[in-house]
């Protein structure tokens, strides 16, 4: 179904922008661009280390709006109603804090510095996510 | 001020990259995670290429930064020091994977779609903050910290 929408060049270029963001934050501020950690400490943390985190988070929102505008529109399609969003959100929020990172922190920054810890985390959340989609789409929805 | 601008710029590139790559769209993420669709020809390999594109920049970038003494606008590089593969890491990643597989949204895209969609992005974002707050509560209790 989505082979039609599969655009290798966009995927690679978009990925390169994500990699550049990680490089940029480390080059200028010396920080890992892990969104879950920056979000939690930006929202719940205190002190002057909070302001750059909020600027980074605001940048994500603005960059997404700008790119959506440049592409002539971008409409995310969700997989379920609000129960899926609420349960999914709770699990993602809790899990990324307990596991010290998400797709950006472990999946990109961690792998980019060849961290075995981040590789273990990435393989774990990938495997569980793949299994979850399999159960939701091919076992329950059959 | 320069620090704030640099952080904003890095976030801007991340948000733009998430939209350009299609990873801010839960449907595309789930289409990658649905490996059973390989057989039926409906699999979307995008996420693998996004990772490849990101690592193609970040691997040489980090390798170069490793040789610098300090970042441009801070006293030192905050390279993560933890190396132990422990239970919280694996349990947390598994819980995250479950939520990611259900909704198709991880923290970066959750922020990216905040300005692009109405109530659905807000509902997920609020629930995600709730999950983070819940972790803060439990993490402060020593009996649970080892779990």
UniProtKB/TrEMBL annotation, chain A:
<feature type="transmembrane region" description="Helical">
    <location>
        <begin position="119"/>
        <end position="140"/>
    </location>
</feature>
<feature type="transmembrane region" description="Helical">
    <location>
        <begin position="12"/>
        <end position="30"/>
    </location>
</feature>
<feature type="transmembrane region" description="Helical">
    <location>
        <begin position="77"/>
        <end position="98"/>
    </location>
</feature>
<feature type="transmembrane region" description="Helical">
    <location>
        <begin position="51"/>
        <end position="71"/>
    </location>
</feature>
<keyword id="KW-1133">Transmembrane helix</keyword>
<dbReference type="Pfam" id="PF04143">
    <property type="entry name" value="Sulf_transp"/>
</dbReference>
<keyword id="KW-0812">Transmembrane</keyword>
<dbReference type="InterPro" id="IPR007272">
    <property type="entry name" value="Sulf_transp_TsuA/YedE"/>
</dbReference>
<keyword id="KW-0472">Membrane</keyword>
<keyword id="KW-0813">Transport</keyword>
<keyword id="KW-1003">Cell membrane</keyword>
<dbReference type="GO" id="GO:0005886">
    <property type="term" value="C:plasma membrane"/>
</dbReference>
<comment type="similarity">
    <text>Belongs to the TsuA/YedE (TC 9.B.102) family.</text>
</comment>
<keyword id="KW-0997">Cell inner membrane</keyword>
<protein>
    <submittedName>
        <fullName>Uncharacterized protein</fullName>
    </submittedName>
</protein>
TrEMBL record, chain B:
<protein>
    <recommendedName>
        <fullName>Sulphur transport domain-containing protein</fullName>
    </recommendedName>
</protein>
<keyword id="KW-1133">Transmembrane helix</keyword>
<feature type="transmembrane region" description="Helical">
    <location>
        <begin position="119"/>
        <end position="137"/>
    </location>
</feature>
<feature type="transmembrane region" description="Helical">
    <location>
        <begin position="47"/>
        <end position="68"/>
    </location>
</feature>
<keyword id="KW-0472">Membrane</keyword>
<feature type="transmembrane region" description="Helical">
    <location>
        <begin position="89"/>
        <end position="113"/>
    </location>
</feature>
<dbReference type="Pfam" id="PF20398">
    <property type="entry name" value="DUF6691"/>
</dbReference>
<keyword id="KW-0812">Transmembrane</keyword>
<dbReference type="InterPro" id="IPR046513">
    <property type="entry name" value="DUF6691"/>
</dbReference>
């Amino acid at each position: 179904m989505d082979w039609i929408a599969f655009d290798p060049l966009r995927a690679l270029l978009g990925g390169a922008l994500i990699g550049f963001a990680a490089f940029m934050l480390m080059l200028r501020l010396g920080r890992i661009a892990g969104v879950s950690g920056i979000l939690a400490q930006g929202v719940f943390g205190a002190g002057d280390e909070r302001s750059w985190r909020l600027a980074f988070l605001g940048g994500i929102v603005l960059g997404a709006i700008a790119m959506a505008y440049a592409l002539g529109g971008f409409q995310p399609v969700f997989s379920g109603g609000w129960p899926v969003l609420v349960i999914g959100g709770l699990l993602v929020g809790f899990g990324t804090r307990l596991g010290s990172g998400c797709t950006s922190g472990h999946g990109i920054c961690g792998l980019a510095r060849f961290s075995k810890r981040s590789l273990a985390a990435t393989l774990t959340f990938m495997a569980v996510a793949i299994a979850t989609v399999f159960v939701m789409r091919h076992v329950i929805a059959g | 001020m320069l620090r704030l601008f640099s952080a904003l710029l890095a976030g801007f590139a991340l948000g733009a990259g998430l939209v350009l790559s299609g990873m801010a769209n839960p449907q595309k993420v789930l289409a990658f995670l649905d490996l059973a669709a390989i057989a039926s020809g409906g699999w979307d390999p995008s996420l693998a290429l996004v990772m490849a594109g990101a690592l193609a920049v970040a691997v040489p970038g980090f390798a170069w930064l490793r040789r610098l003494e300090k970042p441009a606008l801070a006293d030192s590089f905050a390279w993560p020091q933890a190396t132990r593969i422990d239970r919280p890491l694996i349990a947390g990643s598994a819980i995250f994977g479950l939520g990611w597989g259900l909704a198709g949204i991880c923290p970066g895209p959750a922020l990216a779609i905040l300005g692009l969609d109405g109530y659905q992005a807000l509902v997920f974002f609020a629930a995600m903050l709730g999950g983070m707050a819940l972790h803060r509560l439990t993490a402060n209790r020593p009996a649970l910290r080892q779990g």
